[in-house]
Amino acid sequence: MTQDLTPSDVLDDATRAAVLALVLRQRRANGVLMKAINFVGGQVEDGLKMLPTGARAQIDLAARRALETSYTAASRSRVTYGGSDNMHKAMGAISGALGGLGGLPTALLELPVATTVIFRAVQGVAAHYGEDPQGEDTRMECLAVFGSGGPGSADDGVDTSFFGARLGLTGAAVHGLLGKVAPRFATVLSQKLAAQAVPILGAAAGAGTNYAFTDYYVQMAHVHFGLRKLARDKGEAAVLDEFHRVLALRDVPVTKP
Questions:
Q1: Sequence-distant (≥ 6) Cβ neighbours of residue 73 within 8 angstroms
Q2: d(CA 112, CA 63)
Q3: Domain-embedded: residue 183
Q4: What are the Cα distances from residue 242, in Å, to 77, 152, 247?
Q5: Which of 43, 81, 135, 148 could form a disulfide with 127 if both were Cys (CB 3.0 to 4.6 A apart)?
Q6: Distance between CA 153 and CA 76 in Å, rounded?
Q7: How distant, in Å, are the alpha carbons of 17, 139, 209, 241, 249 from that of 118?
């Protein structure tokens, strides 16, 4: 009697080890610094909840516009994606410090800059895994990384429903993806903006939060594009089946298709 094999059973030991490394990277992404910022931001966010509905809606709109701006700018700029992850985190920290000087108003103005820094960092990760960082399909995959839940939230993790050709390459597909990603990103940004809400003190908070958020999305990008590379080499069904299996064993959250 033969035993039924799951797709992941066909993977070799080296591929299994690579998948495990990506699972561990996802776990590390939500590290001590990120948890500390979630705690501090959560306290301040209670005050933001008292703001008028229009102010909360402004954050949602700002998140979508920041993603749209980053997505569009990424196609126009001919840059070399050789910067290190640490360089992008340092750039994000400088941007956050400047944005936090004037409290919430300047933090909102700084948001597109911070998002673009993160988007560029994610593009650099895509290039590292052999993808064309300025190709439209890759830019959509970069956009999908921003749907990786929120650090510390229940849906934290790579969303594997965003994989491959299913994204499509039409304008409607881009807007549809933005519609899914932007609300999750806005939830994360509410913590960042809450920490930056106090003028002057918000500068230090802005530097710390931007550093941590850049690190978080860079780590999620490594998981996302690392899985895509393995899927190209070994087959998507086998790789994702193994990824979900190891995630379940280690109790690491993920959003499945």
A1: 116, 119
A2: 8
A3: yes
A4: 37, 24, 8
A5: 81
A6: 34
A7: 28, 13, 12, 29, 30
| Residue 16 belongs to some domain of the structure | no
Task: Give the C-alpha distances (Å, rounded to integers) separating 233 from 11, 121, 173.
Answer: 11, 24, 26
* Cβ neighbours, 10 Å, residue 114: 26
The pLDDT of residue 91 is: 65
Phi, psi angle pair for 209, to nearest 5°: -70, -40
**pLDDT top residue among 82 and 194:** 194
Q: What stretch of H or E contains 177?
A: helix 171-195
Residue 233 tokens read as: 């080499």
| Whole-structure pTM value | 0.78
SS3 (DSSP) at 92: helix
Q: Please give the span between the terminal C-alpha atoms of the chain, in angstroms, as a whole number.
A: 32
CA 231 to CA 163: how far, in whole Å?
10
CB 121 within 8 A of CB 75: no
**DSSP state letter for 5:** P
How confident is the model over 79-89, as a mean pLDDT? 57
Domain, as residue range, for 161: 32-249
Asked if residue 14 is part of any domain, the answer here is no
Whole-angstrom Cα distance, residue 162 to residue 180? 10
Please report, rounded to a whole number, the percentage of residues in the chain having pLDDT higher than 90. Answer: 14
Residue 15, domain member (yes or no): no
Q: Tokens at residue 237, please?
A: 């069904």
Please count the structural domains in the chain.
1
Highest mean pLDDT among 47-61, 65-79, 228-242: 228-242
Size (the chain), residues: 257
pLDDT of residue 108: 77
Per-residue tokens: 76: 């126009």
